[in-house]
Amino acid sequence: MFRLIIINLPVADHKKTSVMDKGHIAKKEPVQIELVAGKNYAWCACGLSENQPFCDGSHSKGDLRPKIFKAEKSETAWLCQCKQTGASPFCDGTHNGL
Ligand code: FES
Questions:
Q1: Of 70, 61, 73, 67, residue with least CA distance to 42
Q2: β-strand partners of 90
Q3: How far is Cα 43 from Cα 71, in angstroms, rounded to an integer?
Q4: What's the average model confidence in pLDDT over 3-29?
Q5: What is the mean pLDDT of residues 9-28?
Q6: In angstroms, rounded to a whole number, what is the distance separating the alpha carbons of residues 21 and 18?
Q7: What is the pTM of this model?
Q8: Could you give the dihedral angle defined by the CA atoms of residues 15, 43, 83 and 60, in that order, rounded to the nearest 10 degrees?
Q9: Does 82 contact ligand 1 (Cβ within 6 A)?
Q10: Ligand 1 center to residue 25 CA distance, Å?
Q11: Whole-number Å distance between alpha carbons of 81 and 43
Q12: What topology does CATH give the domain 39-97?
């Protein structure tokens, strides 16, 4: 005779993470910026800056740091302010789904 025994084993949840990988939504739209060739910019990644889309140092208490980038040419660019883009610092349209 067989006896059925069911054991509930804990299952690891690999989807949980304690590290925030995207910043707070500052605005749900990009902002048009005139970039100057050769100039360095610090794009706010945490979303807490009062000087969007650029860093003002507000990230100091979190894990996210600004993205420093150099404009390769002078051009008009749309920089992300929702902080959910996959093409930082540029808008990739992700804000449309927020
Ligand atoms: S403003 Fe963030 S993806 Fe457009």
A1: 67
A2: 79
A3: 12
A4: 61
A5: 62
A6: 9
A7: 0.79
A8: 60
A9: yes
A10: 9
A11: 9
A12: Ribosomal Protein L9; domain 1 (3.40.5)
For the Cβ of 77 lying below 6 angstroms from any atom of ligand 1, the answer is no
- Written as one letter, the residue type at 93 is G
Q: Name the closest-CA residue to atom 4, ligand 1.
A: 91
CA–CA gap between residue 52 and residue 26 (Å, rounded): 8
**Whether 27 contacts 80, CB under 8 Å:** no
Contacts 24+ apart (CB under 8 A), 62-66: 62/20, 63/19, 63/20, 64/20, 64/23, 66/42
H/E run at residue 76: strand 75-79
Structure confidence by residue, pLDDT tens digits, 64-94? 999 999 999 999 999 999 999 999 999 999 9
